[in-house]
Amino acid sequence: MQTQGLGLKRFFPESHILLPLLSLRVTAPASPTDSPDPVVEAFLQHLGAGRGLSEYTVRNYRQAILEFADWRRSTSRPDRDWTGLERDEFRQYLRQLARQGLGPSSIRVRFSALRTLHRYLLREGLIKPWPVRGLALPRRPKMLPRFLTEEQAVQLLNAPMAEWKRLSSAAASSQTQPQAQTQSQEPPDAVPFFRDAAMLEILYSSGLRISEACGVTVGDLDAAGRRVRVLGKGRKERWVPIGEPALAAIRAYAERIGRPESPDVPLIPSGGEPFDPLSPRVFQRRLKLYLAAAGLDPALTPHKLRHSFATHLLNRGADLRGVQEMLGHARLASTEVYTHLTLDRLKRVYEDAHPRAKESGEG
Q: Of 120, 204, 290, 338, which is the active-site residue?
């Protein structure tokens, strides 16, 4: 039996690997807090280093697999034996998740993690096939992506600088008022506002995921060619266009913090020296401030700018295949969901404009 990938021989001594498949057992202390499961850790390392998945995907897969192991332990099953799983176990776990009130999407995410682990262990030759394939999972409800109108997108893109100017004006005004009437305010630090304006611009201009935008370096930007290189899911590289407003916002921020032009420096660092990468979580928290300032739903996420990017392109006649390439979708079906949004818009235009779109009401 061959072991590939990340050298699972250090977890499975050669004498164990040569045992018959059904006799293979991974033994460890009963409590998951005593030591990590070496099989799971090797799998997660493969996802991050081998397949280039984001830390958030790896974290979610870890959580899903540990939840399943905890459930097995609660039913007096061996939580670290991945070789003898039966179909009834998956059915029972599926019912347990439903009893917990999890929706179809949450259940499917958990089983997606288990299926990926299954494929990995099969490829490593460590298990027999699990009976998880073909298991009927609850259907995910069809939900169209939420997106901003073009006017709302402009309002959001303008929000960081507008908010900085508002706070600066309020601080200046407080300095001129008698102290008995108002408390003096310190002027706001301009750096986060310039940074966030640049980040919003690149997200909307190029349709990037927030993790992709935070990972772009100075060397990835071809300003003369107005394009940027992105490392997407599965470490797949793609070049996407970037607009002049985004380039101007990036230049303004770089000048503000004195960012060096070294290729490995983040294009939009979190601040000045040492020019560390911006954390997606930090930006998501800041985004709520700008959404509120623009009169938009503070619950919207950075990904909605990606949805808006795709929808606005298609609304203006962009080719579906071209949008697929810019988004980095492996399958055209992932991009086609946006056509439902544009078709709804076209239908409304037709009904409002075509003389024979509606019944005239004449007998």
A: 338
Domain 150-352, what architecture? Orthogonal Bundle (1.10)
Is position 233 annotated as part of the catalytic site? Answer: yes
CATH 1.10.150 fits 8-123, yes or no: yes
Please say if 226 is a catalytic residue.
Answer: no
Q: Strands, E, within the chain: which ranges?
A: 221-222, 227-231, 237-241
Secondary structure (H, E, C), 226-243: CEEEEECHHHCEEEEECC
354 is catalytic: no
Question: Is 290 designated active site?
Answer: no
Q: Tell me which of 51, 77, 229, 329 is the catalytic residue.
A: 329
Bridging pattern class, strands 237-241 and 221-222: unpaired
Mean pLDDT of the residues in the chain: 82
Task: Specify whether 338 is catalytic.
Answer: yes
Q: Which of 118, 209, 286, 312 is catalytic?
A: 209
Question: What does the alpha-carbon distance between residue 331 and residue 206 come to, in Å, rounded to a whole number?
Answer: 19
Could you report the per-residue pLDDT of 2-16, keeping only the tens digit for each? 333 333 332 333 323
Q: For 263-315, how does the pLDDT look when each residue is reduced to its tens digit (9 = 90+)?
A: 999 999 999 999 999 999 999 999 999 999 999 999 899 999 999 999 999 98
Is pLDDT at 354 greater than 80 in this prediction?
Answer: no
Which percentage of the chain shows pLDDT scores above 90?
46
Residue-range domain boundaries for the chain: 8-123, 150-352
